[in-house]
């Protein structure tokens, strides 16, 4: 049917009759399109025609053509009827309208209640997402976050950032990490918005999550506030990180750390902690008897350079020919090797002893040569500096008209006047009339400098 525009009132009347006809013929989509063509922005006409789609339950057919702008905004009840029909027959279409329609067209609370009344597991995802969006429209952000978390939808992170919801996530920290650990930590590691103390408190119920968080926090926070917890967590979840952590941190109780390492039998960590506590003999015993690592023992003795440690290592090694040669190779420069050689029992079989002794003698000879070279360099420097001092002392000292006697404070030289007495000049630069130098026949030092030295002694 072609509608003629020349007679406005008649055309509208005919069009409405035609809409009725199409609805009776169950051609609902065509009827909806006629509504769009002839009703324009007439709110009352729209509301009258829309109700014709209610009885046959075909509000869905007209939903795409309903006016939704401020120029022609229908009664909220109209939009709610359309939403209810979608909720009953087409949940995906319902979610689509929730996303497309401005939220001010209808009463969000009424629609939320309708969802709860018609909630079913079959359409759970669509309904939860609809609830999340409706709660967001209402600014009930905490409820919206809970819906997204139930839905396991990562849109929750965008919602937190968009609406600055850092203060409402304190009790949702574990679900956020379960959803997406990386994105959750991007939020949780922002110390300005989420205090670490709150995160730690919430994660106490999940130690593995607490470990992940504190390990990540340590990379961005140098204060070391929770290092005391990291010792135990590294020991439990990633022992390979424990020793490097113990060496770089100073923010943990060392005795508690040692107790944890003892309970786990972490010997290298125990050695380090005992060394820090000054229990170096106990540390060396662990190296020798538990780790059985002579190279580590030698390095430990070199680090602490303690004679008692070296004696303990020698005593322990003398009974073990397998490690004795390694000790011979490592003690040069720290212990007199003769003391170790003297302790070797007559007839004791030591594999590789000849090679070790030869290397020891070569190393010792090389050390002696190095000391001789250093001594020669020092002597050369000494004589060079001594010669420079002698040259400086042999240089002449100029006396000008500006010089005054250090005793009488009169000029020592006057223009056009022949000096009446001799002048004495000391290497320190002080100038005197000869009669002004006290005990000049015996005094070998400047009187001014002598006084200053005496004052310094006092």
TrEMBL record:
InterPro entries: ARM-type_fold, Clathrin_H-chain/VPS_repeat, TPR-like_helical_dom_sf, Vps41/Vps8, Znf_RING. One of its GO terms (cellular component) is late endosome. SMART domains: CLH (SM00299). PROSITE patterns: CHCR (PS50236), ZF_RING_2 (PS50089). The keyword Zinc-finger applies. GO terms for biological process: cellular response to starvation; endosomal vesicle fusion; macroautophagy; protein targeting to vacuole. Transmembrane segments: none annotated. CHCR repeats lie at residues 186-326. Coiled coil: none annotated. This is RING-type domain-containing protein. Residues 405-450 form the RING-type domain. It holds the Pfam family TPR_Vps41. GO terms for molecular function: zinc ion binding. Keywords: Metal-binding, Protein transport, Transport, Zinc, Zinc-finger.
């Amino acid at each position: 049917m072609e509608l003629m525009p020349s007679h406005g009132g008649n055309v509208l009347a005919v069009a409405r009759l035609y809409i009725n006809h199409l609805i009776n013929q169950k051609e609902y989509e065509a009827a909806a399109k006629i509504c769009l063509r002839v009703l324009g922005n007439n709110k009352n006409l729209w509301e009258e025609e829309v109700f014709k789609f209610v009885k046959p339950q075909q509000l869905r057919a007209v939903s795409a053509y309903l006016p939704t702008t401020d120029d022609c905004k229908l009664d909220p009840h109209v939009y709610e009827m359309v939403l209810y029909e979608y909720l009953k027959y087409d949940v995906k279409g319902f979610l689509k309208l929730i996303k497309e329609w401005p939220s001010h067209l209808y009463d969000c609370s009424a629609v939320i209640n309708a969802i709860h009344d018609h909630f079913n597991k079959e359409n759970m995802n669509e309904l939860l997402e609809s609830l999340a969006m409706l709660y967001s429209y209402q600014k009930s952000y905490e409820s919206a976050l809970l819906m997204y978390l139930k839905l396991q939808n990562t849109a929750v992170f965008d919602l937190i950032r968009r609406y600055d919801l850092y203060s409402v996530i304190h009790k949702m920290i574990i679900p956020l990490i379960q959803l997406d650990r990386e994105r959750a930590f991007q939020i949780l590691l922002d110390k300005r918005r989420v205090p670490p103390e709150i995160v730690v408190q919430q994660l106490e119920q999940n130690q593995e999550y607490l470990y992940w968080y504190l390990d990540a926090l340590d990379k961005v926070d140098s204060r070391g506030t929770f290092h005391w917890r990291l010792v135990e967590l590294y020991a439990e979840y990633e022992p390979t990180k424990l020793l490097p952590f113990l060496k770089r941190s100073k923010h943990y109780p060392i005795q508690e750390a040692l107790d944890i390492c003892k309970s786990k039998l972490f010997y290298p960590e125990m050695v380090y902690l005992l060394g820090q506590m000054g229990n170096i003999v106990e540390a060396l015993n662990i190296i020798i008897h538990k780790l059985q690592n002579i190279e580590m023992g030698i390095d430990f003795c070199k680090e602490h350079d303690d004679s008692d440690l070296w004696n303990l290592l020698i005593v322990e090694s003398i009974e073990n020919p397998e490690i004795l040669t390694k000790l011979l190779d490592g003690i040069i420069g720290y212990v007199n090797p003769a003391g170790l050689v003297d302790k070797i029992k007559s007839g004791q079989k030591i594999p590789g002893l000849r090679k070790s002794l030869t290397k020891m003698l070569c190393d010792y000879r090389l050390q002696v040569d190095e000391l001789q070279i250093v001594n020669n360099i020092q002597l050369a420097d000494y004589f060079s500096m001594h010669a420079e001092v002698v040259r400086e002392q042999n240089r002449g000292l100029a006396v000008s008209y500006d010089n005054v006697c250090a005793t009488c404070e009169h000029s020592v030289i006057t223009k056009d006047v022949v000096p009446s007495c001799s002048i004495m000049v000391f290497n320190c630069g002080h100038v005197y009339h000869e009669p002004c130098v006290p005990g000049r026949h015996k005094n070998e030092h400047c009187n001014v400098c002598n006084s200053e030295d005496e004052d310094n002694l006092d």
